[in-house]
């Protein structure tokens, strides 16, 4: 939920250092005015400190200029106890604080949170000193693109299966080489999809329907939504690693998503049932790439990417607890992590859910 490609970030920095005269507003099609958000969910950073916000209720992606271009992420160390209480104070509300996503601006090291409090939504920034501020959306430079064919905004199903599928119109975002990658559900008969939206925004297409083989369920599925994903180059090919409920880990070459037809990913791991992946990052340790995945019921997993480029995947039922494929270890010290993002080459920031609903923000060493 955090994500900007290294090349995209480097190009933005190069333009800044070169003294380019074209403003970010002109270059990226941003217009001045009030930013209207019906909801604030998944987020990612694009170029030039532009924050990409998934508005699930509106089924739209909003790009907002933050003008947050300077900082020292390598020296940043943010630790805040009872973050939700501090946010409530900042917003002057007694409503329950719900944090939809957390991302780090790779240029400044500042942390951004998408927040809901009752019927109100806000973007909250935490700077390197731990000071909180609300991103001013009353007269900001922004642009928006609507997603065609979203799920209807209504509750469907019965009993414990009741849900509003509009809330899953956007489940994760990333900025990769001039495109915004969006996962979520559509209103189609094969609802799980991934979209590639060119930035600056013009329009979004119907997206690419995806399907996976779910070893724990022993079947192909095209209704399982991507819960979280991360861009990752596999065998020299730009790809996505995507996590799904119950918990298959699936790779999709980006080239396969350009076809506009249903695409089947390669299931590279089954990481256990009765669990939902919450967030993921990729990082390098001792010359090797690892995936960190926070989960609803199985802690934080440090997953090896060794041999993940192999063409074969899981194509047969997986029994006995549903574990197969890429090896992993559980980071026992990281209890209660619900969101995480890479801060620099050696540290991450995490949101920790504590007792009584308390949320803490911590800087931790990458394991």
Mean pLDDT: 93
Tell the overall outline.
globular
Main beta-sheet strand count, sense and barrel state: 7 strands, mixed
Structural class: mainly beta
Distance between the termini: 20 Å
Blueprint of the fold:
Elements: E1 3-4, H1 6-17, H2 24-28, E2 31-33, E3 43-45, E4 50-55, E5 60-65, H3 83-91, E6 97-104, E7 111-117, E8 120-126, E9 132-134, E10 140-146, E11 155-156, E12 163-164, E13 172-176, E14 179-185, E15 192-198, E16 208-214, E17 219-221, E18 228-234, E19 237-243, E20 248-253, H4 254-257, E21 263-264, E22 266-271, E23 277-285, E24 288-295, E25 300-304, E26 323-325, E27 328-330, E28 337-342, E29 347-353, E30 359-365
Parallel strand pairs: 1-13, 16-21
Antiparallel strand pairs: 2-10, 3-4, 4-5, 5-10, 6-7, 7-8, 8-9, 11-12, 13-14, 14-15, 15-16, 16-17, 18-19, 19-20, 20-22, 22-26, 23-24, 24-25, 25-27, 28-29, 29-30
Describe this structure in words.
There is one protein chain. It contains four helices and 30 strands. With 367 residues, it is mainly beta. Strands 1, 13, 14, 15, 16, 17 and 21 form a seven-stranded mixed β-sheet that branches. A five-stranded antiparallel β-sheet has the order 2-10-5-4-3. A five-stranded antiparallel β-sheet has the order 18-19-20-22-26. The model is unreliable at 16-21 (pLDDT under 50).
């Amino acid at each position: 939920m955090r994500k900007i490609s290294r090349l995209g970030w480097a190009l933005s920095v190069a333009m800044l250092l070169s003294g380019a005269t074209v403003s970010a507003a002109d270059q990226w099609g941003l217009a001045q005015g009030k930013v209207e958000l019906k909801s604030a969910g998944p987020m990612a950073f694009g170029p030039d400190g532009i924050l990409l916000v998934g508005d699930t209720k509106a089924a739209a992606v909003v790009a907002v200029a933050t003008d947050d271009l300077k900082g020292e992420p390598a020296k940043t160390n943010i630790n805040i106890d009872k973050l939700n209480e501090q946010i409530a104070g900042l917003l002057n509300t007694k409503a329950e604080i719900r944090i939809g996503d957390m991302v780090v601006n790779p240029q400044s090291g500042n942390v951004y949170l998408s927040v809901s409090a009752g019927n109100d939504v806000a973007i909250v920034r935490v700077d390197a000193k731990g000071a909180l501020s609300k991103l001013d959306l009353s007269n900001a430079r922004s642009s928006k693109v609507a997603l065609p064919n979203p799920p209807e905004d209504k509750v469907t199903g019965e009993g414990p299966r009741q849900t509003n599928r509009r809330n899953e119109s956007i489940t994760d975002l990333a900025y990769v080489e001039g495109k915004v990658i969006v996962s979520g559900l559509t209103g189609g008969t094969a609802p799980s999809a991934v979209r590639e939206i060119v930035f600056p925004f013009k329009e979004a297409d119907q997206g690419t329907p995806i399907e996976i083989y779910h070893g724990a369920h022993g079947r192909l599925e095209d209704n399982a939504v991507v819960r979280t994903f991360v861009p990752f180059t596999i065998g020299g090919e730009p790809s996505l690693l995507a996590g799904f409920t119950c918990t298959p880990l699936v790779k999709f070459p980006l080239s396969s998503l350009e076809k506009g037809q249903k695409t089947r990913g390669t299931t590279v791991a089954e990481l256990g049932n009765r669990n939902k992946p919450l967030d993921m990052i990729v990082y390098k340790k001792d010359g090797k790439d690892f995936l960190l995945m926070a989960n609803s019921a199985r802690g934080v997993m440090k997953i090896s990417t060794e041999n993940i480029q192999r063409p074969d995947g899981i194509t047969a039922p997986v029994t006995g607890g549903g574990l197969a494929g890429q090896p992993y270890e559980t980071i026992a010290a990281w209890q209660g992590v619900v969101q995480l993002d890479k801060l620099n080459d050696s540290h991450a920031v995490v949101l920790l859910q504590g007792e009584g609903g308390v949320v803490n923000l911590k800087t931790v060493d990458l394991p």
